Amino acid sequence: MITYEDFKKVEIRAGKIVSAEKIPETDKLLRLVVDFAEKKELVNEAGEKSLVPSVRQIVSGISAYFPDPAVLVGKICMFVTNLEPRMIKGFESNGMLFALSDENGNFSTLEPNSSIAPGTLAK
Amino acid sequence: MITYEDFKKVEIRAGKIVSAEKIPETDKLLRLVVDFAEKKELVNEAGEKSLVPSVRQIVSGISAYFPDPAVLVGKICMFVTNLEPRMIKGFESNGMLFALSDENGNFSTLEPNSSIAPGTLAK
To answer: Structural domain tally of chain A?
Structure first.
């Protein structure tokens, strides 16, 4: 059993998959680029700051379920977004796909309906 | 930022909604009965133990999105299943619907595809 505070620590957000490709020389890994409607601050040569759209790279071990990873592009799926970044086979992963799989080889992403904008937090 | 261990403490499972009804004299609350393919041990008068199917009652503040709660019956949605039970307006709730809503009034459940059995853990 956990408390509501334990649950609230975990951020799971809707993200739109911008690109998806197999990582060469791996069996299972896809490299996803995912849009959570985030912005980051950039400083130009004149020292001026501006906010620009920013996407995340997320590595996921789901290649077996997507022989053609291109079918994922444009989908809005759910991702854990506040995990510490980690390196997977030389690729930095800034999040984790949040999905379902069972011992029979069934797999499902979790796709909200079309009213939901990228970046929306599940709760 | 959280660790993977923080994330793993939270159990979010697929559950099939068996019944859904508005709680009288409340604005927002639905009383859901949800099947996670769980069983509980019963002892009969002879002292014999047996495992019988068990469902959970879950109270959720989503009545505004479902004027006719019957549309929820039969759907498989996602629920946080290891929160401590709590009492809401006199009804015990043994879990929490895990869904999305935003400040514009948009709402979405998260429904896995049909290959996923009730009780399956998201990860």
So the answer is: 1
